Amino acid sequence: MFMCCAIMELKTLYELLFFITFISISYAMSPLFFNKYGGGFMGIPHIEHKMTTPPAQWIKQRLDHFNHVDTRTWKQRYFVNDTFFNYSDASAPVFLMIGGEGKANPLWMVTGSWIEYAEHFGALCVMLEHRYYGTSHPTEDMSVKNMVYLNSEQALADLAHFRHYMTEKMGLSQNKWIAFGGSYPGSLAAWFRLKYPHMVDGAVATSGPLLAKVNFLEYLEVVQNALESTVPGCTEAIQQAVQSIEQNIKTAAGRSSIKDLFKLCDEIDVDKENDMQNLFSTLAGNFEGVVQYNKDNREFEGVSDANITITVICDMMLDQKLGPSLQRFAAVNNLLLQVRF
């Protein structure tokens, strides 16, 4: 976990950040972390199904925060949970959960580690949905000309305005703000603290990829290590399958075979470099996605492939009853196609 926080005078804030670090480590080392059901079956977390989630609220945002001639605005969705918050206590912190590249789920306003932290510290919890995701639509469509407004710089400015708006609306001028985020929102949490240090007092940026890199080979190294350490021989079978694809696409008959095996929509055109890159990237992505979200408890959110784990796909890659490595590779792809689509 990457944590970015300022030197602050309030002892409570030091205690808060230390507590979060300690609890995060404790969860990772707890029996609940290790004693999971085999085969990827996770069950659902202990949640009161009748638990009421807070209603959506809306804030007016500028479409382009950096072009003052452009006065267009739009409405961004956010949620508030003040269950544990003492409005009269200026030392009570405000927790900001940053939305990422997906719909903001209000379920997270009533469950999860940060809610436990909020109960411990009497924090106000707010979550802002990322522009262009969920129901936060800055533009009428996602045409190329409109997608120029989808970037982290605009998202950070959204956060800054949201912070100012909430401070004025709820009288939070004396309260310390802590930003939370994981993966891309983890990057936003750290960048928010870096770019707007006067607006956020600390950041908990979990697994935030802070360095942008086009050819991110190190990511696949982690994937490879995870596959091989879980099921030895898995990566060799994958390598053999990829080599078989590389041989097959050299001939018209081979390309036709690959199209049928992997249920591709279009014919393979080796002269289209982008198409070839997309093909191999998509097939590699099958394994990347399973590794990244292996046994991560997403089943309760309705994620259809939550039970497909490293063990499941690697056992398939080593199952000779499914045929040669190429057929096993296709079987993994087709399994994921079935559950996702």
What do you see in this structure?
By secondary structure, the chain is an alpha/beta fold. 44% of the residues lie in helices and 12% in strands. The chain is built from twelve helices and seven strands. It has a seven-stranded mixed sheet. Helix 3 links the parallel strand 4 and strand 5. Helix 1 runs antiparallel to helix 3 and helix 5 crosses helix 6. The chain starts with a strand and ends with a helix. The N terminus is likely disordered.
List the main descriptive attributes of the protein structure presented here.
alpha/beta; 12 helices; seven-stranded mixed beta sheet; 341 residues; single chain; 44% helix; disordered N terminus; elongated; 12% strand
Please tally the β strands and state the result: 7
> Within the largest sheet, what's the order of strands?
1-7-6-4-5-3-2
Stretches where pLDDT falls below 50 for ≥5 residues?
Answer: 1-15, 17-46
Q: Into which percentage range does the β-strand content fall?
A: 5-15%
Shape annotation: elongated
Q: Report the C-alpha radius of gyration, rounded.
A: 23 Å
Main pleated sheet:
7 strands, mixed
Q: Kindly, what is the distance between the CA atoms of the first and last residues, rounded to a whole number of angstroms?
A: 33 Å
Helical element count? 12
User: Would you tell me the structural class of the helices and strands?
Assistant: alpha/beta
Order of SSEs, N→C?
EHHEEEHEHHEHEHHHHHH
The average pLDDT is 85
